[in-house]
Design goal:
Elements: H1 7-29, H2 37-50, E1 54-55, E2 67-71, E3 74-76, E4 91-100, E5 103-112, H3 118-135, H4 144-156, E6 163-164, E7 170-172, E8 179-183, E9 200-203, E10 206-208, E11 214-216, E12 223-225, E13 231-233, E14 236-241, E15 244-247, H5 255-258
Antiparallel strand pairs: 1-4, 2-4, 3-12, 4-5, 6-10, 7-8, 7-9, 9-14, 10-13, 11-12, 14-15
Bound molecules: magnesium ion (2 copies).
């Protein structure tokens, strides 16, 4: 069932989204060689709890962190641990969620430790741009797969044949982190549920340098590329409003990210 929120409930989700944005900014500031993913997890949890919110990942089906920290060939769902440190040149995807007054926010960034190689910089840019292409289609009057198609088209527009991970995707979000509908990162446009005011979605492309086939590690969580190629993951939570997309987990509501698409968000 798709949960449609009132305008007031969307404002509550904005507050939750800003907590997640703040937690990710705090983590990003501490990404450096030698820092452990456990330390980054503690920074996120501290930020979330100080804001009066609850880390939604912690305890989710038994997950032991407040963030997912996925390094290099790890795509998503990496478990943060105190003994695992980052090195220069690593790419780390940080995924974070928080609950404030019963409403969820969910967002992810991928950052390179130190200076990225040209290949890594391109991987990150392509993945983030595809997320914004999808967010730019979170428009009243559209259909769900307009978003999916925009994400795919953005990724396949490049000379390098990037892989689009197809076992995982975005989702509805509201009083639970994962709600209907599932949001594919590929497909034909013009299908699926109509995009109506009060629908909130997490848009989260996962892109690989090589083949997008995935394997889940024996820890029961970490998803890696089968071929060992590097991956990137970006995510924002967006609300569909009569005034345009409202990127609830972006500090600026999506102003900068949507500008290249000629879209002005609600802010
Ligand atoms: Mg997430
Ligand atoms: Mg998500």
């Amino acid at each position: 069932m798709i949960q449609i929120k009132t305008a007031h409930e969307i404002e509550l989700m904005r507050a939750a989204g800003l907590v997640v944005a703040g937690a990710l900014a705090a983590v990003r500031a501490e990404v450096r060689p030698g820092v452990s993913t456990g330390e980054l997890d503690a920074i996120a949890e501290d930020h979330i709890r100080t804001a009066g919110a609850i880390p939604s990942f912690l305890g989710y089906h038994g997950f032991t962190g407040s963030i997912c920290a996925s390094i290099n060939e790890e795509i998503v769902h990496g478990i943060p641990v105190s003994g695992r440190t980052l090195a220069a040149g690593d790419n780390v995807s940080i995924d974070c969620g928080a609950i404030l007054q019963g409403w969820h926010g969910d967002s992810a960034i991928t950052v390179t430790v130190g200076e990225p190689s040209a290949e890594d910089a391109a991987l990150m840019a392509v993945t983030e741009a595809s997320m914004w292409a999808g967010l730019a289609k979170a428009l009243v009057g559209g259909r769900l797969t307009d978003i999916s198609h925009a994400v795919e088209e953005s990724i396949t527009a490049h000379e390098h044949a990037y892989g689009i991970v197809d076992h995982y995707g975005g989702h509805g979000i509201g009083t639970e982190m994962h709600q209907d509908p599932h949001v594919l990162n590929y497909g034909r446009s013009g299908r699926g549920p109509k995009l109506v005011p009060g629908l909130a979605l997490a848009i989260e492309p996962m892109v690989t340098v090589g083949d997008p086939a995935t394997v889940e590690l024996e820890d029961g969580w970490t998803v890696v590329t089968e071929d060992g190629s590097r991956a990137a993951h970006f995510e924002h939570t967006v609300a569909i409003t009569p005034e345009g997309p409202w990127v609830l987990t972006a500090e600026d509501g999506g102003v900068a990210g949507l500008a290249p698409f000629g879209i002005t968000p609600r802010t």
